[in-house]
Amino acid sequence: MNTMNSAIDQDVPVKDEPETRGGATFNDAELEGRTVGKPFADDPKFTLRDVEVFYGDARAIKGISLDIAKNEVIAFIGPSGCGKSTFLRCLNRMNDSIDICRVKGQLQLDGEDIYDAKRDVVELRARVGMVFQKPNPFPKSIYDNVAYGPRIHGLANRKSDLDDIVERSLRGAGLWNEVKDRLDSPGTGLSGGQQQRLCIARAIAVSPEVVLMDEPCSALDPIATARIEELIAELSQSYTIIIVTHSMQQAARVSDRTAYFHLGHLVEVNETNKVFTAPQHELTESYITGRFG
Amino acid sequence: MKNDEDVYGDHISHQFNEDLAGLKEDFLRMGGMVEQQVVDAIDALIEGDGHRADEIRARDKQVDQLELEIDEEATRIIARRQPAARDLRLVLSVIKMVADLERIGDEAKKIAKFALSLSEEGKAPRGYVETRHIGNHVSQMLRDSLDAFARLDSELALRIMKEDKRVDEEYQAATRTLVTFMMEDPRNITRCMSVMWVLRALERVGDHSCNIAEHVIFMAKGEDVRHTPMEEAEKVVSN
């Protein structure tokens, strides 16, 4: 595993024994391919079937099938090591940089194979942007942080076009008014919440269709978290958003659907209201009510 | 899903277990108190025991106080624990059911008031057979609804919902009987009207017990069966 990934790779599954806390015990056979709720959608952005991820010999994701609809906000929740981040990172091939990682199954974005050998990964990641747990602005100015993607993707021919993209992205991330007078200041000089919104601006600057968020608020205070959550609601008008979160309240607040992962299985997917008031699976119930996790 | 009272235990946080257990316990304590109030009120009426009727009216203040305490407890749990799923359903249901219990307490107080005025008149009016019968019926319903809550027993809750239909029929029949008494001799009208109010109060006790039963089904099954046909409720319970 290289150093770049070690910072974001806190969710590699290590456990393979059945979970026994909370009264319920389920083995692989009882969970594999038995997702309850509504895993499929009529108009999917992502079509994912029988997805398996291996770290060496260890099977971290165990035959997950799921559709992610256009412009929905879906939250992935589950205890540490359940595979939610691993699964998220399959969606824009962030796992490629982990040598021992192999992905199997059908993963399609708009009906096209994500793992096709001819697929341009840089183009894929422009379409499927990502925001990480810890804000990671480049050691550059605020302007250059946002302009970096559009420049390398050749999205702006003139300086004025680039200025427009930077302003639009910073406005989209709800940061423009706070930084418009200091665009040349270093991005690293912003507060944690502002840095995270800068990273969101950077992600949306290349006009992605999907934004993946891997615990985007876990390093932020409640006010900064509320701002990001507000932003997620606004962004969902234009983008499909997939968020991994350890905060069940956050999943309940921001998402349309919630997916519960457990030991590499997708146990339950359903409308968020349903999951938090009357989950169908006993494991989901035990997790969200604080009986294990 | 487990179908016993342990379903609210085994959180990682023991304090959370205790909070929920405390809420349940206090609800059942209030339920027991209200149940006794109803039974006493019927006895006071039929036995013409004015003293007991006075006691019932005094005890209603304790019922009201318990309602406030339970509401506060539930509010605290929501604020501090953000309960989800079955825990959330328990807390929400208790908040609503406690209002039903309080109203049952009020109905008992109302019956006690009539018991007092009728006992002062001395003469035993007609219609007490019906009152005793419906009184026993709704007391049993209330007892069962509290049992269903304690055991999270949705099948018993469904039976209570069905019983409520029978109470309504009995109430209609008793009302017709009392109307006949009034037509026979207009001097009975005032006293028969008092008995009618008592019957009305008992019928309301049945309604509130039925509300509690509906909440028990919500707690157990996660489906709201209020204002739905009986067949729908049956489907929910059998799932």
Q: Can you describe what's shown?
A:
The complex is a heterodimer of chains A (293) and B (239). Chain A has 293 residues and is of the alpha/beta class. Chain A has one domain: 3-Layer(aba) Sandwich (Rossmann fold), CATH 3.40.50.300. In chain A, 33% of the residues lie in helices and 24% in strands. In chain A, the strands form 2 sheets. A 7-stranded mixed beta sheet of chain A has the order 1-11-10-4-9-8-7, with helices on both faces. In chain A, a hairpin with a 2-residue loop joins strand 10 and strand 11. Chain A is globular. Chain A starts with a helix and ends in a 5-residue tail after the last helix. With 239 residues, chain B is mainly alpha-helical. Chain B has a single domain, classed as Phosphate transport system protein phou homolog 2, domain 2 (Methane Monooxygenase Hydroxylase, Chain G, domain 1, Up-down Bundle). Chains A and B meet through helix 10 and helix 12 of A and helix 3 of B.
Give me the secondary-structure topology.
The complex is a heterodimer of chains A (293) and B (239).
Chain A: H1 3-6, H2 28-31, E1 36-37, E2 44-55, E3 58-69, E4 73-77, H3 84-90, E5 101-109, E6 112-113, H4 121-127, E7 128-131, H5 142-152, H6 159-172, H7 176-179, H8 192-204, E8 210-214, H9 222-235, E9 240-244, H10 248-254, E10 257-262, E11 265-271, H11 272-277, H12 282-288
Parallel strand pairs in A: 1-11, 4-9, 4-10, 7-8, 8-9
Antiparallel strand pairs in A: 2-3, 2-5, 5-6, 10-11
Helix pairs in contact in A: 5-6, 5-8, 6-8, 8-9
Chain B: H1 14-47, H2 50-81, H3 85-121, H4 128-151, H5 154-184, H6 189-221, H7 230-238
Main attributes?
heterodimer; A: 293 residues; alpha/beta; Rossmann fold; 7-stranded mixed sheet; 4-stranded antiparallel sheet; B: 239 residues; mainly alpha; Methane Monooxygenase Hydroxylase, Chain G, domain 1
Number of domains of chain A: 1
Number of DSSP helical runs of chain A: 12
Oligomer: heterodimer
Highest CATH level, the class of chain B: Mainly Alpha
The span between the termini of chain B is: 11 Å
Strand composition percent of chain B: under 5%
What share of the residues of chain A does DSSP label as strand, in percent?
15-25%
Strand order of the largest sheet of chain A: 1-11-10-4-9-8-7
